[in-house]
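Continuing the series of single-chain predictions for the mutant panel. This is the parent chain; the variants come on the following pages.
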Amino acid sequence: MSEPTDGAETTATTTTTPLRKVLGEKTAKALATHLDLHTAGDLIYHFPRRYDERGEHTDMRDLQIGEQVTLLAQVQSISVKPMRARRGNMLEITVGDGSGATLTCTFFNQAWRERELTRGRWGLFAGKITDFRGKRQLNGPAYQLLSADATQDEAAEEIEEFAGALIPVYPAAQAVPTWVIAKCVRTVLDTFQPPDDPLPAAVRANRNLVGIGTALREIHRPTSKEALFSAKYRLKWDEAFAVQLTLVQRRARAAGTPGHARPRIEGGILAKFDAGLPYELTEGQQSVGEEIAADLAKPHPMHRLLQGEVGSGKTLVSVRAMLQVVDSGGQAALLAPTEVLATQHFRGISEQLGALGRAGEIDGDPSGTQLTLVTGSLGAAARRAALAKVADGTAGIVVGTHALLYEGVDFHDLGLVVVDEQHRFGVEQRDALRAKAAVPPHVLVMTATPIPRTVAMTVYGDLETSTLSQLPRGRSPIASHVVPPERPAFLDRAWQRLREEVKAGHQAYVVCPRIGAAEGEEEEPPGDNEPARRPPLAVTEVAPLLAEGPLRGLRIAVLHGKLPADEKDAVMRSFAKGDVDVLVATTVIEVGVDVPNSTVMIIMDADRFGVSQLHQLRGRVGRGSAPGICLLVTESVEGTAARERLDAVAATTDGFRLSEIDLEQRREGDVLGASQSGRHSHLRLLSLLQDSKLITAARAEATELIGDDPDLTKYPALAASVAALVDEERAEYLEKG
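Parent structure:
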C-alpha cells in the first residue's frame, strides 16, 4: 500500500482510465475494496473533507474520546518500557501540535519505530482517541512523517504540500488512510488530462467560474485559500447546475404532456360542499385552493407539492380538489401510508361530506358522489363491492393504502392522485398508482414536514410548491418541554400532569420507539464517544408498568402496527369516542390521527426520534380548543447532540426552522435521494442550506438554458456531464417526487 505506483503505466490519464493502469493492481484493489473507487475519475472526484495547515495545527484540546482523528503533530518525547502483563516492550511517544495540549501514542512490540519517531519530527497521526488512566492516547496509530530537515524543494514528492501549504484530509478507511489517498491523487494528477469543460462559456463568464481542469487540481493541491474557494465554488456549481437542469427539463416536459383538464363546475358538488362548511377557510387555504383549481383546469397534468404545518388544514384543501375533479366526471384517489391513517382519512372525509358522500343511499344527496375505502384487510365480499364501485365510477373518491396499487384495482377515470406523507412511499409505488389512469392524472403530494426553500427547489424542483403556514381558527398552541435525566423529579411531575389533564376531561398519548422486546436483546453497543445504551422502550412493556404504577386507575389502551386491522380500528374508535384516557402507541399515530380532546403527549426515549418525527408527533395534541403540552423524556445529558436536538424541538414550533436543524444533522445525500440508488454518486460538496444563493443562481441559469435548448442538443458535453452527476436512477427519483 505504501507504493501507489507498483507496476503502473505512465500514459495520459482521463476520467475513465482504470486505476490499476495508473496505480498498479495492489493499490487499485485496495481503493476499490474499501472506498468503491475504480477509475481515475472516481478518485479525482473523491474530494478532501477538510484541510489542515502546518502553520495552524489541529487544536488537540478539543479532541473527544472515541473520535476518529487525523492529526498534524510533533514528537515531543519518546520512551520504551517493558509491558507488565505480558512479554515484550511498549513504545510510548508524546506528541503535541503547538496548542499546549499533548497526546500519547503507544506501539506494542515495535521498538524499532524509535529510530524514526525522533524528538522534533512532524507527522500525520491517525487513529481513534481512547482513554487510559485519564490520559488521551492513540493506540497503534497509522502515521506519515514529514521530511526531517530538507528544504521544501528537497522534500520527498509525496509530502511536498505539507511544508506550509494546505493539507488535504480525505474520507478514508482503516486500510487506506488519508495520506495514501493523497499519494494516489498526486500520482493521477501528474498524468491527468482533464475533460473539455462542459459548461457553456457564457455561463462560466456570467458566474465568474474557473475552468474544470483548474478546479479539479486546486481542490486536491490548493495553491492558496483563494484558489481553493474558487475550485470548491466551481465544483459545487456543477452539482447544483446538474440537478437544476434535470428538474427544469422534466418540468418543461411535464408542461407539454397531454392530460385531461378538470375545470371547476358552477353549482356542482364542490359549490354545495363549500356552502355547507361550518367555518371559513383560512386565507392560506383559499389562495392555495385557487392555485390548485387553476392547475386542474389546465390540459396537462398538475404536479404540485402541498406542504404545511401539522394541523394547517391540508386535508380539507385536498378534499376540495378531489370534488372539483369529481364534478368534471373524473375520480380521485387518496393514497395513505398506513391502514390507521387511511381509515382515519375515510372517516374524516365521510363526516366532512355528509350526505354529499352518500349518493345512492337513503339519506344521501343524489347530486353527490360515493366514497369508498380499499385496504388490505377488507373481507372478500367488501373488497369485491368496493372494487366494483371503483371500476364503474360510482365511487368518485377512493381512499386506500398501497392496496390501491395491486393488480385488479381498476379505475373508471382516474383524474387526480393525492399522496399523503409522500416520504412514506417508494418511488415505484407512487408511480404505479399514476399508471392506472388512461392519461397521466393530476398529482397532489402532501407533507406535514416543512421543507426549507432550497430543499424544495432542489429535491422537489419539478413540482410547483404551495405552502400552508396558517393554523385554522380555534387551534390551540402546544408547549413542549424536555424531561431530562438530571431532574428525576420532572418525570414524576410529567405523569402527575397527565393525570391532571385526564381529570379535567381530556385524553393523552404516551409514545414509545418500538412495539415489544426481542428475545435475548442486549444493550446497544456504544457509538463513538457515547456509553452503551439500553434497548429502546417498548409499548408492550411500558403500558402495563404505567397501568400498575403512575397511571393506575386510568383507562389505558395500546396501539401499534402489528395489531390486526380490526383491532387497530376498534382502539382508535374507542379513543376518538373518549372511552380511553391514555393511548400508549408507537409512531403509528404520527400522521393523520385527529382527536381534538387529546391535550397531552409524553414521548419516551425522545432522543431516539428525528426532529421532523417529533414535530409530527406533537401535532397530535392541541387540535381542539384546549392548549396542548408535549413532554420529551430522555436519558441524554446536556451537551450531547441528541440533547441539543431535543432542546431545539422544545424551543420552537416553527416547522421550517426545525426542518433546517434536521437537515443540518442529516447527510445531504439522503435528502438528495442518494439512499434510493446503489450506484456511485458524485454529488459531494453541495450544501442545501449553506449554498442557497448558489442553488438559486443555478436554477436561473438552468431555466434560461433549457428555455433556449430543451434537450441540450447544442451542448452535448454538458448533457453527458449532467448524466454523470445525476444518474438515471436519481433522475427518476427526482421526477417521480
